[in-house]
Structure formats: C-alpha cells, structure tokens
Amino acid sequence: MLRRLAHARGFAFTVIVTLGLGIGATVGVFSVVDAVLLRPLPYPHADRLVDLSHTLELSGITRVDQSDASFLHYRRANRTMAGVGAYLVTSVNLGALHRPGSADVGQPARVAAARISAGTFGVLESPPLAGRVFRDDEDRPGTPTVVVISERLWRRAYGADRSILGRQLEVDGIAREVIGIMPSGFRFPAADTEVWLPIGIDPAKTDSASFDYRAIGRLRDGVSTADAQADLQRLLLTLPEAFPGRLTLPAIRITKMQAVVTPLRDIVVGDVRRVLWIVLAAVGCILLVGCANVANLFLVRAEARQTELALRRALGAGRPTIVWQLLSEAVVLSAAGGALGVAIATAGLRTLRSLEATVNLPRLNEVGMDGTAMLVAAAATLFVALLVAGLPAVRLSAMDGSSLLIDGGRSATVGRRRQFVRRTLVVAQIALALVLVASAGLMARSFAHLRDVKPGFDARPVFTFRMALPTAGFPMRADIAQSLDHVVDAIEALPGVQAAGAITKLPLVDAGRIDTPLFVLDQPMAPGRMPNIHQLAYVSPEYFRAMSIPVVDGRIFDRMNPAKPKLEAVVSDALVRRYWPDGRAVGRQVRILPTGDALTIVGVVRSVRGTTLEEAPDEMIYLPLASSDPRWAPREFSIVVRSAAAPASVAPEVTNALRRLMPSVPLYAAQPMTDVMSGARARTSFLLVLLGIASTLAMALGAVGLFGISAYLVTLRGREMAIRLALGARPLDVRRMITRQGITLAVVGVVVGLGGAIAATHALAALLFGVSPGDPATLATAAALMIVISAAANWLPAHRAGRIDPAQALRAE
Asked: For every residue of 134-154, which 3-state class applies, written as one string?
C-alpha cells in the first residue's frame, strides 16, 4: 500500500494538504469554541457561579448593577446562595516597580485592578498562592490598608521574592501592605487583573439608588437560577424598608425593576458566542468541501484500479479484503492529513494567543491544544477517512469481478452511475462554497459601510492616552481641574501640537463611561415617569478643538475658576433633537440630579459616535472639569493631542513633558485615534477576515473539484470525443459541450447553495451593518462569481477536448 502511494505522490500530496487545511482549521476553531464557550470557568464548581443584576423594563434598560445597599441586603437575607460578593473593575497607579537588589527604579505603572468585598475570594473558592486574602474587618473604610497582588506581577516586578509579603506597595499614592499573592490561573474579574483592594463599603453610609457595583453569587446545591432570581426579587421589594433612601418601593414598581440572575459564564463570554459559532460553521464547511474534493479523487483512483480489483475478486479475494485495501490508503492519508492539521491548528492558536492584547476575545489565555482538542482531531481524522473512502469501497467491493470488467470496458457511457456520484459531490462543493462567499460578501459590505460612517470627529492626526490622578496629591476637584489645565498647557506648548484637551470618556472607548438621568426644567415629568438616561462627560474646553468637533449653536464654556465654577453645560445636537425639535436649546436649563443645581446650556456641538460605530450618535451632556456636580470627582481622563505631524513623532515629546510635570503619574493606553477607530470595527473585520479566508479556500477547492471532474470526464470520454470529431464535429462544438456540462453542474450547485445562503446569512443579522441578510445584490454577485470560477475551471479540460486527434485516439483504443 505504501509503495502504491509512493508511485502516486501527486495524489498523496494533494489529499494530505487538502485534509490538513480542513482538519487544522476545524480543530483550531473548535479549540477556541471549547475554551471560550463550552469549558467551565476555572473555578471549583463553576456551574454554580452566577452574576447578579437588575433590569428596568419601563425604561428599556437591560442591565442595572448593584448599589451598596442592595448588595448588603442580598448577601445578608438571601435563602438560595452560599455566598455573595461585590466588586468594581478599575485600574490603579503603582509606585515605581523594581526587583529587590536592583538599582533600576523603573517607572510608575498603571495596572488593571479590582476592588472586591472580603468574601468574594470565598465565593470563587480560590485560595491564594501565598499569604492570605482580606478579612471582614479589613473591608471597611478607615481600616488598615492592605493589597493582594497576582503571581504575574509578583514574578515580573519582584522576581518571585516571597519576602514581598508584609512589605509596603504604593497604590494610588497610598502605602499598602502586601498580604497575599493569587495564582496565575486566578483572573477575576478580568484576565489582566493584577491587584485586588478591599471594596470598603460602609453599612452605615449607603445609597440604595447608586448602582455602581457588580456582584456574583454561588448557588446552594440543588438551587436553580430561576429559584435564586425569585428569591432576589422578593428581597428587592423589601430593600427600601431595610435601607431607606432614594430608592423607594413606588419607584421599583413604576420602573418595573426586576432582579436578574445569570450564569457567570454567559457574562464572561458576552456577545462573542454568535461570532464563534459562525466561524466554526464556516471552517466546518471548508472541511466538508475538502472531503468532497478528496472523495472525488478517491473515486477516480478506485475506478482506475477496477481491473486490478476485478482480477482479485476473480482469484477469490473476499469483500472484506477489497474494502480494507480501499480503506487502508484513506486511513494512512487521513492520518497524515490529521497530523498536518494538528500542526496547523497549534501554530494558529499560538499566533492567536500572541495577539491577546489586540484580539477582544474572552478567556483567550485558556485556549490551546489540550486533550479534548487532540481527541477531536483524531475523531475528525477517522470521520474523514471513512467519508472519503467509504463510498468507493462499498460500491466497488459489492460488484463481482465480471461486473467490474464489463463496467470498466470500452463502453461509451463510461459508468454513468458513478458519474452521478462525482457530479453530486461537485454540486455539494459549489453549494457550500456559495454559502461562504455570500456570508463573506455581506460582512465585506458591512465593513465598507462602517468605514463610511461619519464618527462626528476627525481622527487622522490625533494621538490619545489616558492618565489617572490619585487621591494622594489631588484630593479635591479643584486640584484635578487645575492639574489638567496645566497638562493641556504643557502639551500645547510643544512644537507641532495644534491643540490638546481632556475628557473622561473618549469616543468609541468603554473606559470612563458615566450614565446620568437628565431632568429638563421646561419639560416637567408626569407623575410616575422616570427621567431618560444619557451619557455624561467632563471635558476641558480645548477638547472640542482637538477632536475637530464643530459648534452647531452657541459657544463652548471657558476655563473656569475651580473655586467659583459656572453652572454651564454643552450638549450634543442628538440630545437637542430629542427634547427641543425646534433646535433652540441654548439658554435652556437642565439638572443631572433631582435636587441639584440647574445647569444652563450655553452651546450645542455635533454628535459623535460615542459607543460603537453601528449605533446612533450618543445624546451627550458635557460639563466642565471644574463643574459643581457634588456626586464625585472623576480621576481618570483621556488626553487627546492634535498635531501637524504624524502622531507617532509627537508622542515621545508629549510623554517626556508630562513625566517632567507629573513624574508619579503613569501614562497608559497610548494610541493614535485611528487605531481606536480600527478597534471599533474589530469584530466586523475579524469575522470578515475569517470568512474571507474560508470562502477563498472553499472557492479554490470547489474550482479544483470541478476542474478535476471535467478533466477526468474528458479522459474517460476520449473515444467518444474522437468519434464526434471524426464524424465532422467542430472542436468548438466539443469545447462547448464540455463547458456546458461543467457550467450546468455549477448552476445546479448555485441553485442549491442559494437556499443555504439565505438561511445562513440570517444567522449573521446581528453582526451586519447597513445591509440586510439575504441581500439580493450580494447573493447575485456571489452566484455570478461561482459560475465564472466554474467556467474558468472548465476552460482547460474543454480546450484539451477540442484538441484531441481522432486518429491517434482511436488507434490508442
């Protein structure tokens, strides 16, 4: 058997490469799906971990987190959970990091962090690698300052020195004692979290209406999510009595506020589920197209050996012997293809993990070729071997020796039944390829529409980074406002800088989002109604010029004296259209707190796409940095810098200037604004690239399959072609006949594929922008492309058929 394959090296190479690509793509994507969607979270009894939140049905708000009061109430009075923990995702400034004994002090760093309640580690059942975690008495305001760090930070910054326990680490300008080290596998609440601080909720000072915290719980044995949700809904109705405050029972009932309990894995995975299943289906199509192609090759090879098989049957070889001879080649070649596929999948996953910082894929650190992936690779290899060789083995082994010899004789029909099987496989290849081509076409059109979206600002010469001002050194809002004014002045003084500004929430970036209710003074709300929720941003007046956001009406507020802030606001024209259709918003007054100061609208600016490019422009409220909003003082800001030169050439000068001005404050998340725009298109472009690769491979395999069957038909029907030419047929007529047969197969495949494409593209509906599933233009283009490719694949066999020499062909027969 190995000698036979050695004499058919081209056949063996084609089969191994085709199957290797199909198996490798399938196994690689399955590994991602398994790690992200199917595998439990890396915590003991992870199936009992749930996320706790609320909805406001009246306002259409699908997620409202926990207030400090609701968390304390749920933790204390629930009947269905073994434990409840609260947390805040944040980031912190660390003092200059250096290894013990090293003279290199290094630079201060900004790292991902979380503030969590003392019981959260217990809810997750995750013990520390060394030291301990927070005690309840350390999770209160004014208690000793402690911190837990990750194993990754411990090794990177301290060289895995265990003497770090008990030492002081500067966090946001405050010295904290390092009491514990969490193992590298503990990545809660995010994969990059490296520091954990006590959340410090004060039971004596709660605000039941400030929903700032996220919460998780661990269900008791035998308790379902529905049971826990009913339990929390019961407690929600008693919350105003347990913690009197701004959240009242009438407000809960008016807004139809509901408690929601969701498996934690669903929250971690987010909206990537649909994308991964689509990609897995796409690579599955590639595998099926490859299998159909290889099956055709095996059919051709089996028929070429039918005289040999006839002689073996005539000499007494049994059916099992014939079947094994036919299957053995498929098993060996599939095994080689499987080995190549594992290598391709391993390399692809390694590349994907190296892109963890840029690929927004949850649990990417858990992706790899583990035992499950190897088992899937083995199962795929066996499946492929049986699929591609099973049909010819069964059909040929079932025939007796005389039938094989007769069917392989000089008949002009040349085994019409077997031609039907091969043609069916080609039709299936074209149909599957059309599904992928149509899907890729829809994603390409969506991407093109996203590129044409006007974000409301000019991103091209803008460079941006973030900075966070710690409480130590910047205790008051006035200190923050003055410091940011100095930052903006220092940057604008640099050569080549045209403008600079600061804002809490940069467009198309999640960090810094602030949602607030809006009370319009000249539009009092009817009893029982709730105010609309809008996005709020604190900005320096220079921000609008730095982002080239034009003023539509009125003016921008000036820099203010933090000691005497003016009660002014700027709003977006999208917000104006909601409340004042006549466009006259300047001079109107609004509040962002029910009893807060009235703010006068002094200007209207063009709306920007603040959340995603797919969603409508945000209805924004902009307040000055020195605003009198009493709720809290924001400390994290994005700085935007517009330059005459390329952003990359200005960035080092900006960094050096700010390090001289604020040496203890790290700068992070530095990138051109064009990269932010690219990130906003990341999901669409990611799926477009994958579907584009899949459709290209499917088209190539489909074209090869059609070429192969056309070429083989010409070879088998050589005598027929010679007779036609000898009787006076023109070479052009022969070429047309072969081309017509190939295009007929393509048309049948396209018709079959259109039905599948219409069904498949509806699965993409949630991922499309500016184009509908089943778009006629896209489907027509995909169908025409497949027919053109099919015609091209038929050209060479048809050309060869027209050049047959009748006399030479008949003498050979």
From this structure: CCHHHCCCCCCCEEEEEHHHH
